[in-house]
């Protein structure tokens, strides 16, 4: 009885199909393409059929419907037969020898074309059946005959059957479209770049992402999918069935190719949980086709919604529409943990810190945006992810560090500093602070570096700059001057004076040139100015005693000749320097510069010479007046000066004209204004 009802139902569908003109058929095609409800299109076609019914086809259909005892049940049977939705996954396990024997089965270009054209034909035929079935259901609703439907069944037809038939029609429309849509040829470098991006997402191990081979003839995207992905799944599934042997099945080629085509449809079926087909399009760089596929799928299919949004975001990235991509990635986040494809994105690696699934998802997307080079989008997404990590301080620290890094790369110094101060991990905060100091120094953006408030980070930033100042070349980096400006900006004049005094000491030891001596004198002058800004009782600085060595934080310990660590002194000797001491050092620096300007060869030894050594050098150079001033300042005996002067005079007395000519040089170098003269002289 049910079989007879189904036969009568199919006869009604045939009558409808034969009556539909090309213009009417085009209405349904456009409705599917423009994402309009197929039910409305079916209703419009029905009205056109009734308006143009010159051969009384509607009466024939009505009489056929009278023969169907239970139209609702018959329609339900037909829908179930055409529906490929399933919750089951295909069996994939196969013995090795079977996999080897089947590896090339239906792998030729001809076989691929035959199978996929068969699928296209099946999809086209069933699309037309669904179209005619929708029109018939609209007719049943219009008739409203209680003898045919019954009161309760009319409601069921409207609410259930229409809602089941419409997605069925759209599914076959989508498969037919994919079977006719050509795949694009993709350059090798594009495939390699795509593979690199997918490796960040850790999706490269799936068979759905195998880059397709070059083919001589145009290929549809369904043929591409079957050849690279689906064929192996289908063949493996067919020969894993119970009571099925390779030898028996291989003898029945018509049955086998029909079975393969039938098994390909579930892999293409949009509402199944498997996501191999869209994933294959992404892995093969078929972005334009993938966008159109998702567009046709989006309004009515509620399976893998998040996965589709993610793939659409990937397409937008390739097309250069980063902000649209970010919107898609954010929309997909709500489906994390619900869909198999998105779950594969968040599989934690060995040793990877466990966090919420959504945070793991954000982490993968952040990596993708980072490798593509979209720092502004990274910042936006990381800022959004922080709201998700409200109770996870480790994830917050990672995200804050990420935001800091990209703000700094973009030159957003204030935002980078803000992200740094909000980092809950003190070690990461210190790393970021160190990076901020180094980068801003390299960019010569020192004003920002000096003027940041550094709340609760003052000692840390001073330590970082001091460490850098003591570790790098004095003449190529200006960390001492930066530290001086840092302290001056905060009115910490004693610290500023200490910094410049240390700078001057190092210049004398390490930069033994005329320029180094000039900078040394300027450093001591700056230090004196700093102490003069302080009340006299506080105008002093601490200087490490001679022999004390500064040890940088993190430096390896000093060792003896046998490799043992040397004992660290319990207390470092210190020496207090007051304003008067700095003035003496400043005078000594000026005298060193005077000597070097008079005799450039002495610059190498003058920089770190003591006052006693400087007296000898000055006498040797004939700068007796300067030597006397130095002795008076440091309370040194004048004996070496007069001995040197006497030696010069004796040498001049016994020398010839050459000696007398040289005498004028060293006499001119002394300040004659200091000699007392009278009118008689």
Short description, anyone?
This protein is mostly helical.
List the helices and strands and how they pair.
Blueprint: H1 2-19, H2 22-33, H3 38-51, H4 57-67, H5 71-82, H6 96-102, H7 109-143, H8 151-180, H9 188-201, H10 221-238, H11 246-250, H12 253-268, H13 276-283, H14 287-297, H15 305-318, H16 322-333, H17 340-345, H18 357-372, H19 375-388, H20 393-409, H21 413-421, H22 426-442, H23 446-451, H24 458-471, H25 479-489, H26 493-510, H27 514-532, E1 540-544, E2 574-578, H28 579-598, H29 603-606, H30 611-621, H31 624-634, H32 639-654, H33 657-668
Antiparallel strand pairs: 1-2
Helix pairs in contact: 1-4, 1-5, 1-7, 2-3, 3-7, 5-8, 7-8, 7-10, 7-12, 8-14, 9-18, 10-12, 10-13, 14-15, 15-16, 18-19, 19-20, 20-21, 20-22, 21-22, 22-24, 24-25, 25-26, 26-27, 27-28, 28-30, 28-31, 30-31, 30-32
Descriptive terms for the model:
681 residues; mainly alpha; two-stranded antiparallel ribbon; single chain
Please give a structural write-up.
It is a single chain. Residues 88-101, 545-555 and 675-681 have low confidence and may be disordered. The chain folds into five domains: 2-86 and 94-180, no CATH class; 187-217 and 273-385, no CATH class; 389-485; 491-548 and 572-609; 610-676, no CATH class. It contains 33 helices and two strands. Helix 30 (611-621) runs parallel beside helix 32. 67% of the residues lie in helices and 1% in strands. It is an all-alpha fold and 681 residues long. Strands 1-2 form a two-stranded antiparallel sheet.
